[in-house]
Amino acid sequence: MTKFLLTAAMVMCVCCATPAFSQTPRAEIFGGYSWARQGGVNISKGWNGSVAGNFNRWLSVEGDVSGHNYALDTPGTVIQGDVSFLSYRFGPKFSFRSEDSPVTPFTHFLLGGVRTKITGTGSVLGTNFNVSQSSNDLACLIGGGIDIGKGTIGVRVIQADYSAFQVIDPFGVSIRANGVRLSTGFVFRFK
Predict the structure, then answer these.
(1) CATH code for position 161
(2) Which residue from 13, 147, 186, 190 has the least number of CB within 10 angstroms?
């Protein structure tokens, strides 16, 4: 039922978006749901938001923020915890706008950081322990997507990105975590 309502809302926004946007909007704000696979782990709980300032029809500067978390529950052990990623990136966005088409494909390359937080509890041989660590590390992202709609509200049908983190694990070891991030949601445009 939730998927049906979400799909219906997206279709209504696309159909009702006013076609008065023959000019390039000065700014665009995106917000939506995000799924990620980072370092071999599926992270289904997430969100993604971005703000882009457009210089012309094809060049923008974009700031992107996303958050993902998952429960760490290792079967057969008594270790349980949570891992969360908050990434913040900035860089150029290239859009392929046409005055005749409501479809706007885009690509972007963003650099920035990621805040990783790991918390957990466990028991080994009757000894209880707690783990809590956070770190700020480098992150980059390259990818693109497709927006549909020419009015003030559009739909980001898909955004697919390759994401790379440089993460410090609880033992102080630097690990590179490569992955994929998929997002969908709404785009709000401002003249």
Answers:
(1) 2.40.160.20
(2) 190
Contact 189, 27 (CB under 8 A): yes
- Tally of domains in the chain: 1
Q: Residue 146 CB: number of other CB atoms within 10 A?
A: 15
What is the chain's length?
191
The structure's pTM equals 0.77
Domain carrying residue 109 = 2-190
Place of tokens 């080994």: 124
Q: Please provide the DSSP assignment of 33-66 as one string.
A: EEEEEETTEEE-EEEEEEEEEESSSSEEEEEEEE
Closest CA to 142 of 176, 112, 177, 108: 108
Q: What residues have CB less than 8 Å from 18, skipping those under 6 apart?
A: 150, 151, 152
CB of 21 closer than 8 Å to CB of 151: yes
**pLDDT confidence bin for 168, thresholds 50/70/90:** low
Half-sphere exposure of 11 (CA within 13 A, CB side): 6
Contact 172, 178 (CB under 8 A): no
